[in-house]
Amino acid sequence: METTKYDAIILDLALPPMGPEEVTHWIANNAERLPPIIVITGNTDPMMRQRCIASGACHYFTKEDAQSFPHLFFKILYDEYLKSYATKGKAAP
Fold first, then answer.
1. How far from 73 is each of 3, 51, 58, 78, 82, CA to CA, in Å?
2. DSSP classification of residue 68
3. What are the boundaries of each domain within the chain?
4. Which of the four pLDDT bands, split at 50, 70 and 90, describes residue 88?
5. Which residue has the higher pLDDT, 15 or 68?
6. Burial, 88: exposed, middle or buried (Cβ in 10 Å; 0-12, 13-18, 19+)?
7. Backbone dihedral region of 42: left (phi > 0), alpha (psi from -120 to 50 degrees) or beta?
8. What is the spatial distance between Cα 1 and Cα 6, in angstroms, rounded to a whole number?
9. What class is the 9-87 domain?
10. CA-CA distances (angstroms) from residue 80 to 22, 42, 74, 75, 83?
């Protein structure tokens, strides 16, 4: 994260030892720019979804959402591409 720029981060909530808030906080403090963080999990708890979004995740997918994930993943990358053009003062193609 300190030397490589990523287009996106896909975070599985089942990965120990840190939770989504700690991982997002670490990424925000160690990345030159914060890439979109996408959480994917089997946890359908609405409170967990809110906590992940509040901690910096841009999207939260459950296994129930798996069918739409590929389409939405590329939309997220495209939206980030457009944002990077806008911040550089260029018109997006």
1. 24, 20, 11, 9, 14
2. G
3. 9-87
4. low
5. 68
6. exposed
7. alpha
8. 8
9. alpha beta
10. 23, 26, 10, 9, 5
